[in-house]
């Protein structure tokens, strides 16, 4: 079992398989000029899997594949099948922008993927093109349908941004409700790579919009998750709100992050990370386990986003996987 110095049980590994992305979301990616980590610095799927195996043996029970955009890394289904075959009981999930999902949904299902979170910030093609800086909406909607056809458990992520998609909170909510998918509204988190002019909505502002139409009841926080669940009294639909400017989810945070280059990151906000790349390349599993324990020993108590003094993290979301 993996326990950090604050006594938190860590059983959730998020793996960013690439920092690259086919979108340039205003709240996530820097504008050009842009330099990616050279491809030769990435760990292969077999190398990443060497670490995943020990992580599972040490107590990891939940794994999420993310990015950048994970579906642009070739043979992702191979990586998923390695994990699923090693331990079919792992709660194995993917976060994607959905653009390539129509081509992949069936393969991912066959490989053993269980759940998919898809980012959908708008139902308007022009707003989607403005947010992602590319004409993306039709493909994303096709991807969502393909995932539904494969009977994946789906959650939709929306980041409401003032003046862009803030008028679509109810539209996205109804879109998800009709399709029996949970929507999670995510507060924009300040970071130095986002376009400077954008301004997100705070959780309380998002809730106000929903309260104008519905009566809502706070159910409580999903255990070990930053998401607070709410229920609409009129129809029973449940949605989530991710509010990182509060720290109440840090106290039972159960996650660590691994990047494609082999950096183990103890907290989304923090810059402290250690590399397992050399240990893995040398097949020194004991060393990799020692680094894992050291990273856990240095996992911070809480993140540093707060409503009063929103600091700006230098850790890019497209790099850590959000
Ligand atoms: N490319 C995939 C996607 O967009 O779903 C996976 C990676 S993305 C970094 C993971 C999640 O982080 C997405 O739901 C995205 O909306 C969210 N995200 C990115 N930048 C963010 C920010 N500045 N504040 C809040 N959420 C953000
Ligand atoms: Fe790419 Fe996801 Fe970041 Fe958008 S949020 S730029 S899709 S990594």
* Share of β-strand residues: 15-25%
Secondary structure tally, helices: 10
| First-to-last CA distance | 25 Å
- Strand tally is 12
CATH class: Alpha Beta
Which superfamily, in CATH terms, is the homologous superfamily?
A: Aldolase class I
Q: Structural class of the secondary structure composition? A: alpha/beta
Low-pLDDT parts are none
The SSE order reads EHEHEHEHHEHEHEEEEEEHHH
Mean pLDDT: 90
> Under the CATH scheme, which architecture would be assigned?
Alpha-Beta Barrel
Tell me about the biggest sheet?
Answer: 12 strands, mixed
Rough shape?
A: globular
Strand order of the largest sheet: 7-8-9-6-5-4-3-2-1-10-11-12
Helix content: 25-40%
Instruction: Give the distinct bound molecules.
Output: S-adenosylmethionine, iron/sulfur cluster
Radius of gyration: 19 Å
Per the CATH scheme, the topology name is TIM Barrel
Number of domains: 1
Mind explaining what this structure looks like?
Helix 2 runs parallel beside helix 3. The protein has a single domain (12-320), classed as TIM Barrel (Alpha-Beta Barrel), CATH 3.20.20.70. With 322 residues, the protein is of the alpha/beta class. It has helices at residues 45-58, 76-86, 101-111, 125-132, 137-149, 169-178, 203-211, 277-281, 285-297, 317-320; strands at 12-16, 62-66, 91-96, 115-119, 153-158, 182-186, 216-221, 227-232, 238-242, 255-259, 263-265, 274-275. The chain starts with 11 loop residues before the first strand and ends with a helix. The model has no long low-confidence stretch (mean pLDDT 90). The longest helix has 14 residues, at 45-58. Helices cover 30% and strands 18% of the residues. The protein has a twelve-stranded mixed beta sheet. Bound molecules: S-adenosylmethionine (SAM) and iron/sulfur cluster. S-adenosylmethionine binds at residues 21, 27-28, 66-67, 69, 95-97, 119, 157, 159, 186, 188-189, 191, 194, 317-318, 321-322.
């Amino acid at each position: 079992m993996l326990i950090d110095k604050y006594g938190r049980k860590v059983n959730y590994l998020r793996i960013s398989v690439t920092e690259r992305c086919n979108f340039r979301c205003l709240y996530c990616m820097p504008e050009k000029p842009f330099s990616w980590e050279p491809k030769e610095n990435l760990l292969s799927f077999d190398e990443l899997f060497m670490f995943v195996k020990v992580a599972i043996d040490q107590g990891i029970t939940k794994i999420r594949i993310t990015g950048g955009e994970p579906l642009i890394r070739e043979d992702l289904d191979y990586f998923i099948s390695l994990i699923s075959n090693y331990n079919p009981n792992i709660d194995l999930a993917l976060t994607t922008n959905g653009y390539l999902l129509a081509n992949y949904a069936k393969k991912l299902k066959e490989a053993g993927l269980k759940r998919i979170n898809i980012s959908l910030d708008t139902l308007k093609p022009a707003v989607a093109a403005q947010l992602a800086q590319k004409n993306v909406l039709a493909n994303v909607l096709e991807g969502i349908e393909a995932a539904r056809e494969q009977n994946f458990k789906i959650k939709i992520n929306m980041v409401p941004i003032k003046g862009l998609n803030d008028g679509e909170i109810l539209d996205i909510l109804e879109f998800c409700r009709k399709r029996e998918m949970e929507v999670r509204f995510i507060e924009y988190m300040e970071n130095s790579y986002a376009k400077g002019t954008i301004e997100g909505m705070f959780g309380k502002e998002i809730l106000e919009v929903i309260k104008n139409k519905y009566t809502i009841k706070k159910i409580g926080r999903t255990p070990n998750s930053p998401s607070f669940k709410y229920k609409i009294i009129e129809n029973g639909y449940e949605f989530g709100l991710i509010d990182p400017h509060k720290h109440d989810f840090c106290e039972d945070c159960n996650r660590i992050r691994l990047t494609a280059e082999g950096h183990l990151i103890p907290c989304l906000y923090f810059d402290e990370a250690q590399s397992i790349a050399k240990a893995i390349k040398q097949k020194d599993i004991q060393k990799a386990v020692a680094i894992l324990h050291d990273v856990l020993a240095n996992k911070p108590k809480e993140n540093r986003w707060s409503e009063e003094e929103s600091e700006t993290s230098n850790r890019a979301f497209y790099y850590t996987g959000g």
